[in-house]
Amino acid sequence: MTAMTASLGLLGLTCQLFLSFVFGAAAVHKLRDAKAFVETLRDYQIIPTPLLESMSALVIGLEVFVIFGLWPVSLRTEATVTAAVLLVSYAMAIGVNLGRGRRELDCGCSWGASGQAIAWGLVFRNGLMLLPCWVVIMSQKIALSVEVTPETFELAASVVALVAAVVLLLCYWSFERLIANQPALARLRGGRVE
Fold first, then answer.
1. What is the per-residue burial (b if ≥16 Cβ within 10 Å, else e) of 149-174?
2. Cα atoms in the Cβ-side hemisphere of radius 13 Å centred on 182
3. pTM for this entry
4. Of 50, 71, 49, 47, residue with least CA distance to 59
5. How far apart are CA 73 and CA 143, in angstroms?
6. Which one of 124, 129, 131, 194 is most buried, by most CB atoms within 10 A?
7. Backbone phi and psi for residue 106, each to the nearest 5 degrees, phi listed first
8. Distant-in-sequence, close-in-space partners of 157: CB < 8 Å, separation ≥ 6
9. Other CB atoms closer than 10 Å to residue 27's CB: what's the count?
10. What is the pLDDT of residues 156-180, one digit of tens each?
11. pLDDT in tens, 46-86
12. Distance CA 139, CA 158 (A)
């Protein structure tokens, strides 16, 4: 195993952990108040009313699949593609509503109790989230072509990946807070939120 292959494997593990944390938090947020999630979907005015509850259950189920599917080698690619499809779908739903001029909607993605209004920053964030998905898929392709032995993947590498994933998660959370605080900052400055 070359140093480059080992590095990509470590980066892939970091991205797996990061995606698991993000989708885990998203699923827990939705499961805590499944009815509120159905109402959030209704507010987006994209899904026909008779399909709202089914779509809500499907989204939550897919998020749970991503969390657990990232770990078995046999499901990793499918789980990563599912994560990417969900991210693109969320970005498109937000973009459609921003295009309609509906900026007051709760994005349904806030980790906290308070809602977070949709913004172009969320579309950008979801686009950036496709990068960890791509890294996981690339590292998966390399992992399948290299024989991994206990000597090539040590505990120290796992700890480094965990720490790096936590740092990514903190960056993600900070970006979320910046987007969530944008309306308050605009009010303080007396301007409009873009």
1. eeeebeeebeeebeebbeebbeebee
2. 19
3. 0.77
4. 47
5. 9
6. 129
7. -75, 130
8. 6, 9, 10, 13
9. 19
10. 566 667 777 777 888 887 777 777 7
11. 999 999 999 999 999 999 999 999 999 999 999 999 999 99
12. 15
Residue 107: helix, strand or coil by DSSP?
coil
Paired tokens of 135: 């890294």
- How far, in Å, CA of 157 to CA of 152, rounded? 9
pLDDT at 63 (0 to 100): 97
In one letter, which amino acid is 95? G
Extended strands (E) in the chain: none
Which distant-in-sequence residues (6+ apart) come within 8 Å of 179 by Cβ? Answer: 116, 119, 121, 122, 125
Q: At what angle do helices 52-69 and 73-99 cross, to 10 degrees?
A: 140
| pLDDT tens-digit series, residues 111-162 | 555 678 899 999 999 999 999 999 999 888 776 555 555 555 565 566 667 7
Helices 3-32 and 155-189, interaxial angle, to 10°?
50
Distinct helix (H) and strand (E) counts, the chain: 7, 0
